[in-house]
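User: Sequence in, structure out. Go.
Assistant: Echoing your sequence, followed by the structure tokens.
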Amino acid sequence: MRISPWAGLLLLGNTVLSHAVHDKAPRALATITPCPAAPVSFAPPPITVTSQYQEVSTCEAKTACLKRRCTTQYSYHTYDYVSTIIPGPDSPITVTRTDQSVLISHSSTTITSTALVTKVRFGHRFTATATAYTTQVKEWSALYKDIGPLALPGYEGSGLCQSCKGPHGEKRQQLEVIECVSHPKGPTVCRGGVEDWIYIPAPTSTSKATAVCSSKAVAPSAGTFIFAFPQHAPPAVIHVPARTVTYTVGGPHPGVATTTLTETVTTLPGRDWTAFVTRSFVRPTTFDFTVTVTKTIFYTVPPWVAPWPT
């Protein structure tokens, strides 16, 4: 596919290097007041946070009264501080503690059902169609420290997860799930559970993408020029081999289960990529080029989702 010139142009000549000045003292990320509700006379001093995952303290105040005399006790516990922004299903999510619950995904589905009903009007019977709508809302979440590379697209995880790798090298992600079903003439029924996403390593599927890139223009000065040509690879068909999966079963009878998955064929959506062409010139000049750029695109098999316990 031939691309029109000037798809993108980056000038790399006359680069200016800047040197950062580092202080000897670590930079403060935040200041935590462990117990703001406690009297100043015995409240612990503020904690200066200088690194991610630094252990800090917080407190919970509990007041008890007996015969009109009240006392307040402060119970302290520690947690690992973190300050980061990660991608979310709708917008970026700010995380400030490793045990913070993070929304991974959500869905809402409306199920339409119809039935024939008999009605009587003015002494006459007739048949009508009744329509009912059922709404199913589902949310997946996990603690920040338990987020691995499978949870959020484009995010490699917190790096703290201890259970995101299976005994045979497979990637896995365990999520807390809440599912609520709303009926038109009944109460909303919710249930919670644990869902396992499992990625079993399979032979890598690749495809070759090519682009014919051309440009004709004038380089205004000496330097190195990079031309960027946006491309779009078509959908890819992946053959997923048969494999055996071992997963954890929750619910009232927890345990370990094994299942065999049959060979399947999956179609993945097209993918954007960019073809780059680099040219260097020692003086201002007119250039004209046409080159073919080839790129290998790697595809991975989507994770398998373990069924909910029944």
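User: And one key feature?
Assistant: The two ends are 52 Å apart (CA to CA).
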